[in-house]
Amino acid sequence: MKNILIPIDGSDGSMRALEKGKEIAQSFDSNVILLHVRPALYVSDYEMNILHQYQLGQYESIANTMILRGQELTNHAQEILDRGLDVFSELDANKVSTVILEGKPAFAIIDYLESKNDEIDLVIMGSQGLTAGKVHQLFIGSVTHKVLNGVKQPILVIK
């Protein structure tokens, strides 16, 4: 097992996946890729029509606000990845890398895995992410479910 992908969102489930990933990576001397998907910022067609009705100065203010919000999301994503890197601090730093993607988590993870063809040998992810409520904890999370059904790589789901 040369390369392991661990998508993380900061949830307890993803932290448990990190611990299991560390154990497996140490056993097989694997490379680890920690991946976080941050929400995409977008403006709908309706919102664009409204924005075009404003003067340029107001539009620039809105654009600047969106740029700042994007930076906040990227900083938050980096904080989550840094927590993941802390788990792997005992491993060779060259064996652990991070990736920040933007979009809907399940689709971004699937697209990433498809782009890597056969480079990823194992995906390790938590059974539930941040959106899981008490009732949903009885089932596998929607992101995990979509990834399980959307890729060919083996996936280890951690409860």
UniProtKB/TrEMBL annotation:
Pfam families: Usp. InterPro entries: Rossmann-like_a/b/a_fold, Universal_stress_UspA, UspA. Residues 1-159 form the UspA domain. SUPFAM superfamilies: Adenine nucleotide alpha hydrolases-like. Belongs to the universal stress protein A family. This is Universal stress protein.
